[in-house]
């Protein structure tokens, strides 16, 4: 069983469209994250949720809206896609209960906006 | 958040130990040193972390200097599958899992 799974793996779409990426973890973790890796391979946090509550929002445009229906899921919805949104998006989870947080990452969703 | 500095690339012969250095001279007393790696086209993978003492697990060993200003990740017997970008990250307990990735070290393990 994959610990952190995200779908789809590849997403190709036109500018202006709205799309969603889904993420699920079966590790029983309390905290989930979205990270973005740009074309220069820099990885940067976008959001984190702890037990469905938003904890970190790293000045991401309002077009990006995370939704956590329960603590095992954190989906990312993107409105009005722009060329600059093309990147690889990684979901991750961690126990969220202690001083030392080990993050477990999914395999990524490669988003290409044409 | 302490900044970390790593060499951009390193080579290692298969079967030999790979020693990856990291400088974190501004690390604060409660920040842990974490190591992650990213194999091509995969998500980052946790390797090991430590605060003051040296640590070892099934993947690697972590040696932290006494003054905590630098550390070394050791892969004791590198294999071709260890070819990846390795990231050294300093993170405190109040940072909520906010990993700040630098450029990392691209390790190439060669036959």
Task: Note the beta-strand portion of chain A.
Answer: over 45%
Mean pLDDT of chain B: 94
Structural class of chain B: mainly beta
Oligomer: heterodimer
Task: Write a concise synopsis of the structure shown.
The complex is a heterodimer of chains A (114) and B (111). Helix content of chain A is 0%, strand content 55%. Chain A is mainly beta.
How is the secondary structure organized here?
The complex is a heterodimer of chains A (114) and B (111).
Chain A: E1 4-7, E2 10-13, E3 19-25, E4 31-37, E5 43-50, E6 53-57, E7 64-70, E8 73-78, E9 87-94, E10 104-105, E11 109-113
Parallel strand pairs in A: 2-11
Antiparallel strand pairs in A: 1-3, 3-8, 4-5, 4-9, 5-6, 7-8, 9-10, 9-11
Chain B: E1 9-13, E2 18-23, E3 32-38, E4 45-50, E5 55-56, E6 61-64, E7 70-75, E8 84-91, E9 105-110
Parallel strand pairs in B: 1-9
Antiparallel strand pairs in B: 2-7, 3-4, 3-8, 5-6, 6-7, 8-9
Plain-language structure description:
The complex is a heterodimer of chains A (114) and B (111). Chain A is mainly beta. Chain A has strands at 4-7, 10-13, 19-25, 31-37, 43-50, 53-57, 64-70, 73-78, 87-94, 104-105, 109-113. The model of chain A has no long low-confidence stretch (mean pLDDT 92). Chain B is an all-beta fold. Chain B contains no helices and nine strands. In chain B, strands 1-9-8-3-4 form a five-stranded mixed sheet, with no helix packed on it. Chain B has a four-stranded antiparallel sheet with strand order 2-7-6-5, with no helix packed on it. The chains are: A mainly beta (114), B mainly beta (111). The interface between A and B is medium-sized, with 28 and 22 residues.
What are the main properties of this structure?
heterodimer, A: 114 residues, mainly beta, globular, B: 111 residues, five-stranded mixed beta sheet, four-stranded antiparallel beta sheet, 45% strand
């Amino acid at each position: 069983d994959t610990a952190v799974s995200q779908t789809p793996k590849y997403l190709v779409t036109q500018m202006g469209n709205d799309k969603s990426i889904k993420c699920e973890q079966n590790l029983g973790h309390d905290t989930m994250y979205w990270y973005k890796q740009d074309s220069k391979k820099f990885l940067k946090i976008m959001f984190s949720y702890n037990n469905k509550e938003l904890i970190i929002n790293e000045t991401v445009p309002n077009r990006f809206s995370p939704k956590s229906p329960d603590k095992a899921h954190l989906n990312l919805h993107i409105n009005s896609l722009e060329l600059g949104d093309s990147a690889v998006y990684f979901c991750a989870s961690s126990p969220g209960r202690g001083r030392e947080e080990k993050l477990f990452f999914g395999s990524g969703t490669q988003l290409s906006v044409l | 958040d302490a900044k970390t500095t790593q060499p951009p690339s390193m080579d290692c012969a298969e079967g030999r130990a790979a020693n990856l250095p990291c400088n974190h001279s501004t690390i604060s007393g409660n920040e842990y040193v974490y190591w992650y790696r990213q194999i091509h086209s995969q998500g980052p993978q946790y390797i090991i972390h430590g605060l003051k003492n040296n640590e070892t697990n099934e993947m690697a060993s972590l040696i932290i200097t006494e003054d905590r200003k630098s550390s070394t990740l050791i892969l004791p017997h590198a294999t071709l599958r260890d070819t990846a970008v390795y990231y050294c990250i300093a993170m405190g307990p109040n940072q909520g899992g906010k990993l700040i990735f630098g450029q990392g070290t691209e390790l190439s393990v060669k036959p």
